[in-house]
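Sequence decides. Our protein:
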Amino acid sequence: MTGGTITLQAADGHSLSAYRAGPETAPGLVVVQEIFGVNAHMRRVCEELASAGYRAIAPALFDRVERGTELGYAQEDIARGLALRAGIPESALLADVEAAAAALGGRKVGIIGYCWGGTIAWWGATRTRRFAASVAWYGGGIAASAAERPNCPVQMHFGDQDTSIPPTDIARIRAAQPQAEIFVYENARHGFGCEERPSYDATHAALALKRSLAFLETHLG
């Protein structure tokens, strides 16, 4: 890996760590973690996006409640991640992703998120005007705020076998956001893009990444 850790300063004075990868002059991407912290998987995602031509920054959102947290994917890790997530206000999460965007300079910046981060990427589109494009992979909380109005183009990716995001939720999002690009992957489960999960599907992950990169190139290029 070629990236490293930096420190960000949010508008409310909170300092947090972040993983950064990619050349200084590349288009910027804020990469938003799952509920497992900025762990090895999220660092690999940053490196992959850097290899595709972006400067990626993944803010450590759990620093609000517990610094340096990196979790695995066992049931106890899921429980721990959910507990940590519950302690962070939505406004604080947005302050942290905006701090990451600010660290990328005055250029166009996109946001891409996974799982919990997929929902936050959606909020980045609807609750801020900082991003020129938003990509959400299996964001479980999007349906609850599907009626919000995005301020930038949005692309979403879901698995049709995701037990945490039922087809009714996807249909609700489609109805509320007809202008969004929404892809549903057959026989894909939640977390199909994470190589460390049993639900990983290399074929679907590669296609979703290809579509994400094409979308980002259109709107950040």
Summary: The chain has a mean pLDDT of 97. The radius of gyration is 16 Å. The first strand starts at residue 4 and ends at 9.
